[in-house]
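Researcher: Good morning. I'm working through a list of sequences from a screen, and I'd like to move beyond sequence-only analysis. For each chain I'm collecting a predicted structure so we can compare shapes side by side. This is the next one on the list. No need for commentary yet; just the structure.
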Amino acid sequence: MPKITPKRINYISWDEYFMGVALLSAERSKDPNTQVGTCIINSQNKIVGVGYNGFPTGCSDDALPWNNKGKFLETKYPYICHAELNAILNSIGKNLVGCIMYTALFPCNECAKAIIQSGIKEIVYLSDKYSDADMTKAAKLMFKQSGVKLRKLKTKKNSILLSFVSSDI
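Model: Good morning. Structure tokens for this chain:
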């Protein structure tokens, strides 16, 4: 029988992998203040949707405001699509029933509605920095009533370094 080489032991977990995809997606956001990414997976651990916060397709990143303060129409808020909504809208199959969503920031109440309506059963999040905000409290209430499981990511790693230098592989 051939000698079996032991497998590598410091590989990342599924949770770390999918949250890593969400964080990498966030790097596509052009928002100067907040970059959020989301990854949706099905029951076979296959990625079925990703998204990041940005303006809708066809709306210019240069013609709409990125401000986070000021008069409502002079801020990003009436125009921006959150990462969670984009991941749902960008999903490869429109049936997300039973899927898990990995997201860098706990979803707002508006995204919670779309998450619940799409049938996603669990949310794994990294940050809950707006936990005291009414929009987050409303989201948590809706998730509780609809049976969506919430889980803050616990990880063994603090960071993962990506390199685009081929000699590092």
